[in-house]
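Objective 1.3, modelling of assemblies. Example input:
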Amino acid sequence: MPSNTYYNEILTEHNLHPEHKHALPGANTALRGVNPSCGDDITLQLKVEDGVIEDGAFVGDGCAISQASADMMLDLIIGKPKEEALRLADIFIRMIKGEASEEEIDELEEAGALQDISHMPSRVKCAVLGWHTVEEIFKKK
Amino acid sequence: MEQQFEGVRGADTLDIASVREDFPFFAAQDTAYLDNSATSLCPECVIRTVSEHYLREKASPFRGLYPLSVQITEAYEAARETVRGFINAPEAAEVIFTRNASESLNLIAYSLGSHILRPGDEVLVGITEHHSNMLPWRMAAERTGAKVRYLLCEPDGTYREETLREALNGRTKILAITHCSNVFGRVNDLRRFAELCHANGTLIVADGAQSVPHMPVDVQELGVDFLVFSGHKMLTPMGIGVLWGRRALLEEMPPFLTGGEMIDAVTTDEIWWAPLPQKFEAGTVNTGGALALAEAIRYLGRVGFDRIQKREADLTRMLVEGILDTPHVRLIGSQDPAEHHGIAAFTVEGVHPHDISAIMSDGGVCIRAGHHCAQPLHQHLGIPSSSRASVMFYNTEEEIGRFLTVLRSIRGAMGYAE
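Predicted structure (tokens):
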């Protein structure tokens, strides 16, 4: 039988019951992120006040990894200053490349459950989609 | 010319154990390979043909005046004759070797397109088409001022005769359509399509990539004007394909690629193109590929095409019935296994195809996930993407069983209660 090390309960739970997958009426910034080859397509919406992410959500479609990862990311970054969100996004992306330390991965909380994706080159783009999108949002500003 | 392709007579069941021994892949890989519509595996005899050719007798065909070059030229032309017999083309000069079906279709769209399309003309393209039989026509339309229109299929993949009749008009110069859809697995009645097209003064270009490897295809019986297919989907390495077209059309058409070997003479002011087939085979040709394709055709003949068809029909039935039996799984296309020709595309409720493919991969099964290079078809069907399992005669019931076992576990693996 399949041994899906990366389809763990944390991932499937965030995919089946994403807390942050909905439109965000008070959003003041939004950006679409797409993986053309897989069809993952999300729009990240944030409400940013005085450099702090007051609230966030996403809408779209894609594989379980892309959707769960975006949901976990929002769990982590809501309520944090944008610099902190960018620092965590950097840790996450390095984790997926296999370059983050265990202490750093601990900071990612549940999103650390995706670290096995680093052994799945074909799924890396799915995992980092939301995190790249948040980087793009703040780099544009 | 004698027809070189002939199925072996005798026992009507294929000896699967001995067939599997012909494919070293099975000894090397512990995986159920069910992505045959993307590319097939290679039997040892085909690879041996290629390696012997390049190791022991490599020389430039056509050009050299020494015996080895002449011998390679003869072997290359004999391969062309083998292909001619395989598809029952009227003459070998109508068989053009290309890189694959995509290149063949690009050649036709570019060359025939520039030859006959004028502003306001229409090219009718099946909505079931692989991008390789769609994008070249869109490019040709852009270059010539013609327009691409789509022939729409029913949800089960059938094309109604009425739809085609209504779509054809005085401006329709070309119909580009697949013989067998790489998503539905359904075979189109090209003979009837060709009659309707020709009665309307429309040429018909057929994509045989998914049909030629799996069923006897006779271009004269089909009545189409062009047929293309790829070697790599019928047991050869990548890089060899075929374009067959009617002589009268090929002669009128301008060359696609220009360069060496495809001219009779060149001066600073004038060019005399070489006769068929060399006019369309610029540059040093893929001799190894052509010899591989001829050997693949002989191999299919030795196994016996009638037995191959029977076995693939049995495997398809098991695959399709197993999919239909699995809760929360929807088969794309007909519910009748006989309409699937080795191909079963499906969706699993609530699970993205890339997750399906990943779980299959963990379970030791290779299948395709995505839009199968047929994005407009998926849009027409209202589904973003799908998964696809496809069989070939060398697959086993055990492999399909493994696929079905994993299929039944997918929803559970993704956290669904049932």
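Residues 332 and 346 of chain B are 5 Å apart (CA to CA).
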